[in-house]
Write a structure and sequence with these properties.
With 580 residues, this protein is α+β, with helices and mostly antiparallel strands. 23% of the residues lie in helices and 22% in strands. Keywords: Metal-binding, Zinc, Zinc-finger. Pfam families: SDE2, SDE2_2C, SPRY.
Length: 580
């Protein structure tokens, strides 16, 4: 009789040989009962997922017959799943937070769906990341994002069968607040010992949930900490600048006082009695605080403060520019100085009469074809908007000398008296009668002091002259027991507004070489030209801005009027900082 070889799998694979006449499901169950000890009535046979009937024909090799227990486990009334969940929430256990291997109703893994949402969220926040980069916000300042599930990085809701994550049960994120013990340990300027750990002063040490210093701080507290630190640094910088500007004295008055004291000592050495005992007088004409607005801000893009013959230039816009067109020159060798209060992006140099710029576009001196500038912050020279390497890196407190040789057509610079070499050649090749004047541009919050000759130059090179004339040197006239010290005034002092105010419009017109009888309308005054009208208005202490028609109308409006009769709106404003 033919034998049939059968493979039956029940926990393990069994090889069974039966005659073909006895190869029934009941006999196979009996053999499995003998070998495995499971009662035959509880077994069911399956082939390829289909249950075999009692009279079904058994398949031979290589098919495998699988035996399974037909009945379930005996149990109580239920509640087994609830018991498992309650045990899972017990002490020492962690709630399930990884659902990536689960599938949704479409059969997709939840981790793949979550990754798609994460990519979409990253693309949507592109603009926010660029704005944070411009504002200097680091990743440590950003809190971990709040998700619907409460699990960082999981943007899907948690499955209904999961225990879930309650936000009230979640611990506060570490290092989002400063450690108070750490701060108290450093009060009063106390320094930690050498080689002390970062958490020195905190009894919890590295196990502390709070931040020990800015390096560990995260989130909104880091942003607030950086803001407060920046405010302190700005306040300290402002105090230093204020102390520096107060230190800038009126050298002309000090010089006259020194001369007077020197004359007194000289008289004593020559055996003369004290001049005050003789009833003599020693008069000193001290140089007044020069309030002349010789520098003009283009479109009010810079804040200018005139004091002691200097001009403080403060950046208030994107890239503001100021020009000293009243000191324009057509030939010669000229020099002015700039003292840097801050060492940021500033461009100092010269410009021609056709120079124009736009602060909103970030253009300044050196960006126009008829302008030339040096920027020591970036160590570059600029003209026609093109830059080349030049000079040395400058720092706050450096004095930059700006020289122009109109005979050779060269522009050069110095740093603290040290020559940086020729920066530009052939600057005056466009027109033989073009005039050149100083020009500076500065970024917002940059500060510098500009001196065109109102104070003695620190590093005036040989062969060059300051634009505003030499410093005011007292002239000494001695006659017996009396002496008189008279300060030689420069051209700008001759235009002191206090003197101009005492003049009538007719006297001022005569000094301006303007015949008022020829000008019956404001239109007639336009014949004088833009620059001439500007000079006349400046001499009279009036506002000198605007176009040709506006300047002519402003000047014509004061014809035959005394100073007190002139509308205050057209008078030049003198800031309190310009007073001594």
């Amino acid at each position: 009789m033919e034998l049939l070889e059968l493979l039956v799998h029940f926990n393990r694979t069994l090889c069974i040989s039966l005659p073909s006449a006895l190869a029934t499901t009941e006999n196979v169950k009996s053999i499995v009962e003998e070998r495995e000890g499971v009662p035959a009535p509880m077994l069911e046979l399956y082939v390829n997922g289909y249950k075999l009937a009692k009279d079904a024909q058994l398949p031979i090799l290589p098919s495998i017959i699988r035996a399974r227990v037909a009945r379930g486990l005996l149990g109580g009334k239920g509640g087994f799943g609830a018991m498992l969940r309650s045990m899972g929430k017990g002490s020492g256990s962690k709630a399930t937070r990884d659902f990536g291997a689960c599938r949704d109703l479409n059969g997709r893994r939840l981790r793949h769906v979550n990754q798609e949402l994460a990519i979409q969220k990253w693309q949507d926040e592109k603009d926010n990341r660029e704005q944070q980069k411009r504002l200097g916000i680091s990743e440590r300042e950003l809190m971990i994002e709040d998700t619907p599930s409460g699990i960082p990085g999981w943007y899907l809701p948690t499955p209904s069968w999961s225990e879930g994550i309650k936000k009230s049960h979640m611990r506060r994120q570490r290092n989002t607040k400063m450690c108070q013990n750490w701060l108290k340990a450093r009060q009063g300027g106390r320094e930690p010992p050498k080689n002390a750990p970062r958490w020195w002063g905190c009894p919890r040490g590295r196990q502390c949930d709070f931040a020990h210093g800015e390096e560990e701080l995260r989130g909104l507290q880091l942003t607030e900490h950086k803001r407060l630190r920046k405010e302190e640094e700005d306040c300290e910088k402002q105090c230093k600048q204020r102390r520096y500007i107060e230190y800038e004295k009126d050298m002309r008055s000090d010089l006259a006082d020194a001369v007077q004291q020197g004359l007194s000592r000289r008289g004593k050495l020559e055996g003369r009695k004290n001049m005050q005992e003789l009833g003599s007088t020693c008069q000193v004409d001290k140089a007044k605080n020069d309030r002349t607005s010789w520098l003009e801000s283009i479109n009010d893009s810079l804040a200018l403060t005139f004091r002691y013959g200097l001009c403080e230039v403060r950046g208030t816009s994107n890239f503001g520019t100021a020009t000293a067109s009243s000191h324009s020159r057509i030939d010669g060798r000229w020099y002015y100085e700039v003292k840097l209060i801050t060492a940021g992006v500033v461009q100092v140099g010269w410009a021609g009469e056709s120079f124009h710029t736009n602060s909103d576009d970030g253009d300044g001196v050196g960006d126009h074809v008829r302008s030339w500038a040096y920027d020591g912050c970036r160590v570059l020279k600029w003209t026609e908007g093109k830059d080349l390497d030049y000079g040395e890196q400058w720092e706050a407190g450096d004095i930059i000398g700006c020289m122009i040789d109109l005979w050779k057509g060269q522009i050069s610079y110095t740093k603290n008296g040290k020559s940086l070499g020729v920066a530009f050649d052939n600057v005056n090749n466009s027109s033989s009668d073009e005039r050149f004047f100083p020009a500076v541009s500065a970024e917002e919050k940059q500060i510098l002091l500009m001196n065109v000759g109102g104070q003695p130059m620190q590093f005036l090179p040989d062969g060059y002259s300051s634009l505003q004339g030499t410093a005011h040197v007292p002239k000494i006239v001695e006659d017996g027991s009396q002496c008189e010290v008279t300060a030689i005034k420069s051209d700008m002092q001759d235009r002191d507004r206090n003197t101009i105010k005492a003049e009538s419009p007719i006297e001022a017109a005569e000094k301006d070489r303007a015949d008022w009888s020829k000008f019956t309308t404001a239109k007639d005054l336009e014949q004088l030209g833009l620059e001439t009208l500007k000079e006349i208005l400046k001499r009279r202490g009036l506002k000198c801005g605007g176009n040709l028609e506006q300047r002519a109308a402003r000047l014509f409006s004061i014809k035959n009027k005394a100073w007190d009769e002139i509308d205050a709106k057209i008078k030049a404003t003198v800031h309190a900082s310009q007073e001594r």
